[in-house]
Design brief:
The structure holds two protein chains of two kinds. Chain A is an alpha/beta fold. Helix content of chain A is 37%, strand content 29%. The longest helix of chain A has 18 residues. Chain A is globular. By secondary structure, chain B is of the alpha+beta class. Chain B has three domains: 437 residues, no CATH class; 189 residues, no CATH class; 189 residues, Barwin-like endoglucanases (Beta Barrel). Helices cover 53% and strands 17% of the residues of chain B. Chain B contains 24 helices and 22 strands. The chains are: A alpha/beta, B alpha+beta. Chains A and B meet through helix 1, helix 2 and helix 3 of A and helix 1, helix 8 and helix 9 of B.
Chain lengths: 229, 836
């Protein structure tokens, strides 16, 4: 599903070069759940943004469904995201002036889905917000906002779901509920899940964990525990 | 996703955006630009068309044909075949006889449908009599009757209803003619006018072969009919014929209204510019507030074209909503504005048209779209990574092209509103330079103040510290506020000067009578009579009549064949001489007369006439005066304030050149209307002198000025509203920053009172710094206006030195606290939630 070869990302800071990711290699198979863990500043979010085609690598290749992202332009990567990718963010990223329903409908409408409203209502009902379709983000709690974000992410039936610290802005109890929802839906739809977190408990729910340390990848297998989850 | 689906999605998002302050401000700014343009252009359109109509009233038709030869009846037949309405008049001078007295009169014999346009103003008694009533009649005298000017009746010592003999016929005087509908011809004719029925002329027997007669035909109809007729007629005319259109008629009323219209256009232009700057600020904030939306859309797979189109659609919806509401409101408000001057406009006022409203609508929408385009296209450059790293700002698109487009549309608007290319260029370029200078000066001023802040009061120290932390925003805000207050002060200044100018134009003791035909031997006696009566009079000006025949020894008929030359070449000019300039004249080129001027027959020519005749200093001009040619040399060009209701002349000779020619004197004086019976005695005492009363004209001008003043005040209010919107937009541009700071302060334990105090200090400092800049720039601009344009001595406007800071403090504090009400009331958690 995802194949990463010799991926490097560096930034020029005047005359100096800051290496964020160095020679990263990674394979993610279809339906697999992968956690990218590491300390703040280790390059987790940068790796996620590169895998999702949100940013361009300095060198190396990323293949999604055998298509080379580095060979695509910005619009090509956007088309790929529309077709294959869903997102859940730490700060929810809901549009403040749109209702919960409109937020979920947004990616469906961008994909030209004719039944966008029906699909969005179904998904909001699935995440337990069937009664709050017309509520705006500022009228919802943090957990509810993240549930809207999860409904939005799954609404287009993506092949891969990228999640950036999905429980990072939530209290422990709400965080656990969101984790359950995310993993349950993921299991039901057999979506490939790549999540970035520094929460060890959350990471351990994934089949596999990779650690980023100073921009380099160190891999750990965690099959047994994740399966049990 | 198809294009129409993007449009629908944009519509849905836009409806939700209507709740946001930046979208609302964009709509309000566009609305105000459209309202201002629509109101003023609808008003101006009807006013100018009405003035056009009134001008045609002054010559009793749309087009007239005057000739000293008999005009072909074919002209009338052809005109009527084109659908034009026509009438014919015959003019001649003859002696009128009554009570054993003779008086030379100018008769205009007219057909029953005279005048085609406008009215004859007539009265049923003498001027100044308590019971005398004036009325406007679109009619002419019945056969057997005449309408005569009051001075004829006074000279002949008869009353209304008495008879008067003209040649072999006897007529009853049924009305006193105050103003003939056709006002062409000199006001200063020594003979009184009389209107007579056309069919009565043969019975008088005074019009014979060899009589000095003029023939006149009047035509009226729509533009295309008139244009077809004039095209057909022109090739058939000869030098004796003179075709006149409405553009040739000029009057004092027109000048006053024209000035008012120019002022309204200028004020409207300033209000549109203020709205445009507000749009620019709101668009920038709108763009910044939508970086996340753009990033999320990109993240969710929207192509850059889809993101661009989505925001473009939203911009277009905003433009349409603001422009449509503004244009309609402007159209409605123009009725109110027009109502204030309704009394002086003709009853059959030109109907309102949709065109100015549509133009305003399109222009306002274009102003928004072109100004907001660069910031909106910036959204297209937002990287999708921003969803993870919010600090990423998009790379700015090259705004130069859009800036040029925006300047282009501002120029077009300026031209549309002012009608002057020069004024438009000066205005828009001046504005750009001004904003640039404000940017630099505000930076220098703030830096300077920060250096000496220890010596300043605490409130300013706190404010300066705040401003110094956010130098970029502080600089922009100071520049924007300085611009607002300078604009308001300038509008105020121009308004004051305009009112002063109007008041000076027709002060209380403005001469309401002209005395002409004063023989040199009667001058002293007449002056003494005026003095004995205690009347304020002008100087006595000598007057000689002469025809301009040659320019640099070339006959003017060769230079200007047919009808092409100015009117001044087609008639005798009133010439005078003088040793000094009057207070309403100024030398524009060359020098005033000196010791050598008499020997070289030097003359001073009115500058507008000089321009139309393509004259240069030193040119020789030949006048034919009483059969003698006199060759003169142009010594200087001189501006003349024609609207001052005093004797004015196109050509002034050096004292000593004309003195030996037969001449009379002219002067003007003010006689209170209640004293008008005194004129009868004067007419008896000075039979040769003709006294012309212009009180009606003055009254009309005064009424117009009073009512136009109301319109001017209304537009000032509109400018102030635009200024307030711009101010609000400016304050909102830093709202996020302020929320962020307030959230941190509140989290660290600051009370609401403390935050309020900091905001107050910041706004007070902002208001005072902007005021200093505004006062300085206002005084510099007013100095330039006074010295280079108005040519009057400059003085500092001390009242505004207090007025601007007071206005700045009040308006910035009120709108500032209103804009920041959420910052003050919300809890730290709410604030943090808001900014995240």
């Amino acid at each position: 599903m995802i194949k990463v070869e010799n991926l490097c990302k560096s930034l020029s800071l005047g005359e100096q070069t800051l290496n964020i990711l160095t020679d990263v290699n990674l394979n993610v198979t279809a339906g697999e759940t992968l956690a990218i863990v590491g300390k703040s500043g280790s390059g987790k979010s940068t790796l996620l943004s590169l895998l999702a085609g949100l940013d361009q690598a300095t060198s190396g290749h990323i293949y999604i469904q055998d298509k080379d992202l580095s060979a695509m332009d910005e619009d090509g990567r956007a088309a790929m995201r529309k077709q294959h990718v869903g997102f859940v963010f730490q700060n929810f990223q809901l549009l403040p002036h749109l209702s919960a329903l409109d937020n979920v409908m947004l990616p469906l409408e961008l994909s030209g889905e004719s039944q966008a409203k029906r699909v969005a209502i179904d998904w909001l009902t699935k995440v337990g917000l069937g009664e709050r379709l017309d509520h705006q983000p500022n009228q919802l709690s943090g957990g509810e906002q993240q549930r809207v974000a999860i409904a939005r992410a799954f609404a287009c039936s993506p092949d891969i779901l990228f999640a950036d610290e999905p429980t990072g802005n939530l209290d422990e109890h709400t965080g656990e509920m969101i984790e359950d929802l995310l993993f349950d839906l993921n299991a039901q739809l057999n979506t490939t899940l790549v999540l970035v977190t520094h929460d060890e408990t959350l990471a351990q729910r994934c089949q596999r964990q990779v650690h980023l340390l100073d921009g380099k990848l160190i891999e750990h297998q965690n099959d047994t525990q994740s399966r049990s989850n | 996703m198809k294009q129409h689906e993007v449009g629908l999605l944009a519509a849905k998002h836009w409806f939700n955006d209507l709740r946001s302050s930046e979208t609302r401000l964009l709509i309000i700014a566009t609305l105000l630009a459209a309202l201002s343009m629509s109101m003023i252009s609808s008003f101006s359109d009807r006013l100018s068309r009405t003035m056009h109509y009134r001008a045609s009233e002054l010559i009793a038709g749309d087009v007239t044909l005057y000739s000293t030869r008999e005009l072909s009846s074919n002209y009338i037949s052809y005109a009527e075949s084109l659908g034009l309405e026509t009438t014919t008049a015959l003019g001649f001078s003859t002696m009128a006889f009554a009570n054993d007295q003779l008086q030379l009169v100018r008769v205009r014999s007219v057909q029953a449908n005279y005048p085609l346009k406008g009215y004859n103003q007539v009265a049923d008694g003498f001027y100044g009599d308590e019971n005398t009533k004036s009325e406007l009649l679109a009619a002419s005298p019945e056969p057997g009757t005449v309408w005569a000017e009051e001075r004829i009746l006074q000279k002949l010592n008869i009353n209304l209803g008495d008879t008067i003999e003209v040649g072999n016929a006897v007529f009853k005087v049924t009305r006193i003619l105050q103003q003939d509908a056709d006002r062409s011809g000199s006001l200063f004719s020594p003979f009184g006018r009389m209107l007579m029925a056309y069919d009565d002329v043969p019975s008088t027997g005074v019009v014979n072969q060899g009589s000095r007669i003029f023939y006149k035909q009047y035509y009226t109809g729509n533009e295309s009919q008139l244009s077809n007729f004039v095209d057909w007629l022109k090739p058939q005319l000869n030098k004796a014929d003179r075709l006149a259109g409405i553009e040739e008629s000029q009057n004092n009323v027109g000048n006053a209204l024209q000035k008012a219209q120019q002022y309204l256009s200028l004020a409207s232009l300033i209000s549109v510019l203020l709205a445009a700057v507000a749009i620019a600020l709101c668009a920038k904030r709108y763009s910044e507030r939508h970086y996340n939306t753009a990033a999320l859309l990109r993240c969710l797979g929207a192509s850059s074209a889809q993101v661009r189109n989505l925001f473009m659609y939203k911009l277009i919806f905003t433009a349409i909503l603001g422009a449509v509401i503004g244009a309609i409101l402007g159209f409605v408000l123009h009725f109110i504005l027009l109502q204030t001057v309704a009394d002086i406009l003709p009853k059959d006022l030109m109907p309102a048209r949709a065109l100015p409203v549509l133009i305003s609508l399109v222009c306002a929408a274009l102003v928004l779209i072109l100004i907001a385009l660069a910031p909106i296209l910036n959204l297209n450059q937002v990287s999708p990574v921003r969803v993870l790293r919010r600090e990423l700002a998009p790379q700015s698109v090259k705004a130069n092209v859009f800036f040029v487009l925006a300047v282009g549309i501002m120029l077009a608007l300026a031209y549309l509103l002012s009608g002057s290319i020069m004024l438009s260029v000066v205005f828009v370029v001046g504005l750009a330079v001004l904003l640039l200078v404000y940017g630099v000066l505000s930076s220098l001023l703030l830096k300077g103040l920060v250096k000496v802040q220890d010596k300043l009061p605490k409130v300013l120290r706190v404010g300066l510290t705040q401003l110094d932390r956010h130098q970029y925003y502080a600089r922009s805000q100071v520049a924007a506020f300085a611009f607002i207050f300078t604009s308001v002060a300038l509008i105020w200044l121009v308004r004051g000067d305009l009112f002063d100018d109007w008041q000076q134009q027709v002060p209380k003791d403005t001469p309401n009578h002209f005395a002409i035909n004063i023989l040199p031997e009667k001058k002293a006696e007449f002056a003494q009579a005026l003095q004995d009566k205690g009347l304020a009079t002008s100087d006595f000006y000598p007057m000689v009549r002469g025809r301009l025949t040659h320019i640099n020894a070339v006959n003017v008929n060769e230079i200007y064949p047919e009808d092409e030359g100015p009117n001044a070449l087609k008639r005798e000019l009133n010439l005078t001489w003088s040793t000094t300039l009057t207070k309403d004249e100024a030398i524009e080129a060359g020098d005033w007369f000196d010791a050598t001027s008499v020997s070289e027959n030097a003359i001073s020519v009115e500058s507008e006439l000089a321009r139309r005749l393509n004259l240069n200093l030193g040119d020789s001009i030949t006048f034919n005066i009483a059969g003698s040619d006199i060759v003169t040399k142009v010594k200087n060009f001189r501006s003349v304030k024609w609207e001052n209701f005093r004797p004015n002349f196109y050509v002034v000779f050096a004292d000593g050149v004309l003195n030996d020619f037969h001449h009379t004197y002219i002067n003007s004086f003010y006689l209170p209307p209640s004293e008008s019976r005194w004129l009868i005695d004067m007419n008896q005492q000075f039979k040769a002198i003709t006294i012309i009363e212009i009180e009606q004209i003055l009254k009309q001008v005064r009424e117009i000025l009073a009512q136009t003043s109301v319109a001017v005040e209304a537009i000032l209010a509109l400018v102030l509203v635009c200024a307030m919107v711009l101010m609000f937009a400016t304050l909102l541009s830093t709202l996020s920053l302020r929320k962020h700071e307030a959230a941190l302060y509140r989290t660290f334990g600051a009370s609401e009172g403390m935050i309020r105090g900091r905001i107050r200090s910041e706004y007070i400092t902002l208001a005072l710094v902007a005021s200093v800049l505004a006062i300085a720039s206002f005084e510099v601009i007013s100095l330039a206006l006074y010295v280079f344009i108005f040519d009057v001595s400059w003085r500092a406007h001390f009242s505004l030195w207090l007025g601007i800071p007071a206005l700045a403090l009040a308006s910035i504090l009120i709108s500032g606290f209103w804009a920041n009400r959420d910052v003050l009331k919300a809890s730290p958690r709410q604030l943090l939630q808001d900014i995240s």
